[in-house]
Amino acid sequence: MFRVSIAYLNYVFDDPRVLAFLLSSVLATYYLAKHIPGDYMPWTGMVFSMTMLAISRTNYIMNNIDYVIFNPNLTQPQMMLTMKLVSFCWNVRDGRQSSDRTSQVQKDRAVRTMPGLLEFTSYALFFPGLFSEPFLDFVEFQRYMTGANRVGDKGFPQGSPTDARAPSTLPKQWHPPGPTLIALRKGAQGLLLVALFHVLTKRYTVNILLDPNVTKTYNLPSRMLILHIILLTTRIRAYGIWALSEGICIATGLGYTGVDPLTRQPLFEIIENADFWGVEFSNCPKQYLRSWNTTVASWLRHYVYERINATRNKSGFAARTATLAFSALWHGFEPGFYVSFMGVSVLQCAISGMSGFHSQDLMVNEADKVITDLRKLMQNNHFAFASRKHSSSFRNTTTVLRHCLWAVMSWLLCQSLLDYALVPFLAGSLTNILKVWSSLSFYGTAVVVAVLLSTRGSHLLKASLSARELRSRSLSNRLSLVEKKLKVLVKWAGKQLDGTLTNGKRFEM
């Protein structure tokens, strides 16, 4: 696969300087990881890798070459190479740390023995991950190369957690079916999605919303629907490319994690880049982002957010903001990238403060409730609710309808706001972003500002009421304390007066 990458790079670019530039990044990172000790090594490797990526992007901009994320130019392999080099530096650093200073995930991915230069270069320029995800850590690649992920007696990788759930009904020498059919299925799926993208992109592009007459031709709901179709078309392109890349990895056996105990089919979960249902039918921004580009999201979480978090010794807004800024810089220099990531961050803050959406995932996943309620109705035959005998069925049906309505409304809200926040990713320049948002009547900005103001106002009102209640409580406590002191003083004065009167009587006698 390493030789395939070399041949492919020479064929596509037809310029030996491109391969030399990529190899220089690989060799320099290997030297840094091997010879620089201490905790500064991974930070140095991260800065170096991002600098090389910035140089490649600047070179294309200065030469007036229009680069897009999915075009096969130098920036795309450099992006993938940056992920591998940054993760390798951190994994080497984790391998040098004591066990009490690393988490369980870091222990599993730690590189405790420095690999040879040829092995590391093979990992960095491995063909299935050369131009697109999936991204794998060096340890996973090493297991694949050494055969450590080969099937065991029951078809599970040796040492894999999946081995613990091996069904006892399987024969002892049973092996899972080969990955050829799964790889072909992924490849066919990718080709169909790419073909569908080429059909849709002829009609649905962001240029529709840049047309000044779009507001006269379509009303606001129609423009919102067009926006959703445009972003769906863009996602279809990503789905297709990722499916092709996953098919290549599956064909080589890379990413094998075990066998599904129910279907007895091989699993390749660690190379999946997106959950289609989790993205397209999500009613929660956090779930949407978790389901999209999962390998990059995992890379950002483990090698950027958690590392920044560890230096601060606490979680906070600064770590999230720095991670979003790093992600935008990794994607490119276009202003739309930064506006999109900033918009998503503000959107998450706004929705997290909405009344009724407070949960671990910001929004309650009502789809699960709908399925659960429907299953109960089907099992109990709760559809004849006309009589009093089935009054409980009527209440259950009402609950199902309420959950369905909530699921649809939350899905519309989530998807429309995320479409508004992510369209700058396609618009690019600030001028185009303002034009697109203007054609959409700034509906997303209005909703987010209204939510922020309402939640801020409610928080201020609650804070003022709490302060007033606290002041009233403190005043009542003070009054009660004064009252107690007065009672003590009155008792003392009464005793003194009684003593004085008693002494006076004795004096008179």
TrEMBL record:
Keywords: Acyltransferase, Membrane, Transferase, Transmembrane, Transmembrane helix. The gene is ale1_1. One of its GO terms (cellular component) is membrane. This is Lysophospholipid acyltransferase. It is found in: Membrane. Its main location: membrane. GO terms for molecular function: 1-acylglycerol-3-phosphate O-acyltransferase activity; 1-acylglycerophosphocholine O-acyltransferase activity. It comes from the Eukaryota. It comes from Cladophialophora chaetospira. GO terms for biological process: glycerophospholipid biosynthetic process; lipid modification. The lineage of its organism: Eukaryota, Fungi, Dikarya, Ascomycota, Pezizomycotina. Pfam families: MBOAT (PF03062). Residues 152-174 are annotated as: Disordered. It is a multi-pass membrane protein. The keyword Transferase applies. InterPro entries: LPLAT_7/PORCN-like, MBOAT_fam.
